[in-house]
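Title: Prediction job returns without error message
Component: structure pipeline
Severity: low
Priority: P3
Assignee: unassigned

Description:
Job completed but the reporter wants confirmation the result is attached to the right record. Sequence as submitted:
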Amino acid sequence: MFPPSKNYRSEPLQVTMISIQVASLPVGKFMARVLPTTKFKIPVVNKEFTLNPGPFNVKEHVLISIFANAGAAFGGGTAYAISIVDIIRAFYHRKIGFLASWILVITTQVLGYGWAGIMRRFVVEPAEMWWPSSLVQVSLFRAMHEKDNSRMSRGKFFLIALICSFSCALVTPFFAIVNIFVGFALFLYVVLPTACWGLDLYQARNFPIFSSHLFNHKGEPYNVSGIVNQNFEIDMPAYEQQGLVNLSVFFSLTYGIGFAAIISTLSHVAVFNGKEIHAQLKASFKGKEDIHTRLMKKYKSIPNWWFYLLLGLTLLLSLALCVFMKRDIQMPWWGLIFAAAIALAFTLPVSIITATTNQSPGLNIITEYIMGYILPGKPIANVCFKTYGYISMAQAVSFLNDFKLGHYMKIPPRSMFVVQSIGTVIAGTVNLAVAWWLLTTVENVCQDHLLPPNSPWTCPCDRVFFDASVIWGLVGPKRIFSPLGNYSALNWFFLGGALGPVVVWLFHKAFPNQKWIPLTNLPVLLGATAAMPPATSLNFNCWLIIGFIFNYYVFKYRKGWWQRYNYVLSAALDAGLAFMGVLLYFTLTMHGISISRWGSDGEHCDL
């Protein structure tokens, strides 16, 4: 339940679940030591409760961590819909009510839980769906709670690594790291230079190479405010006078690759996992279970009507937002239904990809594209459709990921459901309250041209979100990615994404002895640049080097060490980074002290 400061900071800091695990352990043990054990009776239901049921145990620790982490998909630290509030108030300089903002944040976070619960039997119970990120949590919980007197204990090792570290590639399987490296290297060091200096693609030399900003034909910043009318829609005469929107060659190609990545997800799962999905569907109806699932049967299962009820209530609240507060969000009621249908269709294939590769393809581009064609000229309708379509799916996958952790740690399913649901609502409310406070107290927040040098409040994540709302919502893909715009050729990436996994599968069938061919995962390879922008090559190169050292060299030549310490090291480095960020904030940022270093600059090239 951390505030959304990462949306606003120039160097975004992500406080992950691992940080919560570390912080909650001493607090839990302290409370177990000092709280009274007195039992209190509840008159109506004739039951008892106590503030101190006994020693702080690992299952309590798991539930606390999941409760605090439930606010954002995969521990992102911020409810995604906060960015909608940010761009309305800080970029478009318009108004949105707090109630509408709260409903938008909560419903987009909870909607996907409804259908995710029903899919547990397909992506949580099978042993083949191992969810690598959950193993990091399991290793850390074991290090903190199990006694280990032989050699260096995992707990001691964790503390040493945490202090020394004062997003880690150690979690990702090596075959996925190779796919990411190939995709990243080909794009950044082959495709991009060729497109820019060799072909001058899309007049690339007129614009910065590595930029997510929008430009006119002269290479000057595009005046977005000048093409928005009083109804918060596109002003066509003003748009025609200013001219077409232009993108940097880097930004435009990342969109094309994004088109291919999301379509390749469906294609890859169909050809490589189709038989397994069909077999699991059959097994789920026949009651085929593994040992972990049989152990979990000791707990009361969650009845499906809980999920149906949650889904129904969330849909009704979302529909009320679309009908009665449409002026704030622009999206019609049918847009909500369509977005939910897209999220539902993609949840299972994306869950399979995430459960086996630790990479999660997003629906942000495809949802923007669809709504941009259906309802052009309405930027907020577009980002709301994207959020309901993309984040509902992402939250569903995160929900399933947490359930797999509960599966490993033998947590009662009903306790998991209650903790995740309540935690999400509380976290979303806290996120919005803090965002509202920052937007009203930080002068010129997100306005980098008005902020002082080295200001931490430049909002790089929200800048990308805002530019996307202009491209897909205000101007619309028809005026950018069709013959009316400059980037119609990027639509061919959809076809490439659909056919790519089929070609890999055919090669695998033709050369079955080549073991590396089925490890070629195009959704992961193509999705390598999904974080760019705002991520830079520096972020990728460091991640790839660490991943190669530990998940290839150490795994191959020091496997015993890897099995014992790898995931614990990952957890320690992650936690150390988060605590370092908190320390820097209280020691430097609060006193107005900023540090300039070459790694903080987004661009070092004057071209």
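Comment from assignee: result matches the submitted record. The longest helix spans residues 249-286.
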